[in-house]
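Posting for a labmate who doesn't have an account.
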Amino acid sequence: MDLSAWVCPLPLRDSPNIVMGHGGGGAMSAELIEHLFLPSFGSAADAELGDSAVFDIGGVRLAFSTDSYVVKPMVFPGGTIGDLAVNGTVNDLAMAGAQPLVMSTAFILEEGTALTDIAGIAKALGRAAHVAGVRLVTGDTKVVDAGHGDGVFINTAGIGIVADGVDINPTRAQVGDVVIVSGDIGVHGVAVMSCREGLEFGTEVRSDCASLNGVVADMIATGVDIHVLRDPTRGGVAATLNEIARASNIGVALVERDLPIPADVRDACGLLGLDPLYVANEGKLIAFVPREDSDRILEAMRGNPLSAGAAVIGECVAEHRGMVVARTALGGNRVVDLPAGEQLPRIC
């Protein structure tokens, strides 16, 4: 069966100006990089386009990552933009199999923002760095005019060491691999949405924001050849799985009933007309590992409180290469496509 026939082509997104969807981690983001940034950068660009770059300097394998955080509001149930900045950068390094070591932090502050708010965010950032075991070694501060920012934006960069023999890369997924998620999905996105003006869901959902380098270290210690690790942030699980399917030229088959979606997340998404697969996460990872090694990986993950709910949600298949398809509760199939932009912006 040719499942590619199930997908209607998207209209050309021929916009002369930047729109919010360009920052959503979906198809519009990919087009911006492919058609504007890479041609502009020319031979200076590295076209691997991972969340972290892995390279060798003097016989030492290093991972390097950078990211920017513009979440609104700055403080949300379970976290702040400060600990989000640390955890997000640490996780990008960890998804390359690196042990994070050092970070930079650059603050862009809006004129008029209360110093007490900035202090609270800075303290949260420092606590998160301490928990993750990374040092904050350099940084910068800029102030923009009132009305030209949104309180606090944070840019970070991080460096970590990748051990010899570790080769974790989005291109390494293989037919026969199982797909594992480390716990409940959609929690962070719903937590942020829950405290925006006019959005009350009747229950407090707290962000899953956390550094996962300890979980990854436990997984690597098993000796299993982990093929792919990714944290499903912007665009959620759907965007992450589509990117891996296309990078590795394999199909991904999900089983919807196996997806760990908490009832309050499912209810909130139903109220807003959202699909939990597309909602951002900040404390979860997705792993692709050989089927024969999945029990060892699951045992290691479930021994860590941050991944105690680890579960197999699907597998890699030879059919519908480059696509993600989910088996529904009714026994049918649906294509889980790459989102054009993001369902709701400013989640991370």
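Reply:
Got it, the structure tokens are right above this. The two ends are 38 Å apart (CA to CA).
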